[in-house]
Amino acid sequence: xxxxxxxxxxxxxxMLNWAFSNEEPKTRSSGPVIxxxxxxxxxxxxxxxxxxxxxxxxxxxxKNSDQICLVxxxxxxxxxxxxxxxxKEDGIETDLYNLxxxxxxxxxxxxxxxxxxxxxxxxxxxxxxxxxxxxxxxLSQKRKCTAVTLVLAVESxxxxxxxxxxxxxxxxxxxNLDGNxxxxxxxxxxKNS
Length: 193
What we know:
This protein is of the alpha/beta class. Helix content is 33%, strand content 20%.
C-alpha cells in the first residue's frame, strides 16, 4: 500500500496520475494507493510541487541550514512555511521538507536527513501515536541517527475543547499545528538545548 500527502493542486494531479499509471513497479508501487488530500484551500503553487514523484522521497522547499529541518505532510505546508518565516525573524534558520510519501519511505534517504541536522521537527495533522512521526523517530533510534527529533501531531487524549466544533484552523491552533504554535515549540526546544 502507498500513502501520499499532496501539498497543492498540482501535486495532487501528479499523485493521481502516478497512482493510475501503468508503469513498472520499479517507479510506481503496485497495490492500492491512498491520497490524503488537504482539507483546506490549496496554497499558492510553487515550482517544486510540479517535480515528478520519486517513490519514498519528498521535495525540498528550503535547504540552506544544517541546524533545523521542518519535515511536514503536505496539508501543513502553509503552517510550516509560516513557522519558518517567524523563526527566521528571530534569527533561527530552518529547512523545509515536504514528505509527499507517508508509505513507502526510502529509509536510507530519511536516515541521511536524520544525520544531517541537529534538530528535526516532524509535523503532521494525524494522530501522534501510530503516525508517520512515530515511525520516523523509531527509524532514527534504530539507525542511531544524530538529530534530536521533535514530533508535532495530534495528541490521542480527550480534551474538553475537542467536543467543541471548530474550523480546521481553530483545531490546528488547539493542537499547536499552526505557524505560531510550531514556531513557539521550536523556539522553546532551541532555548532548552
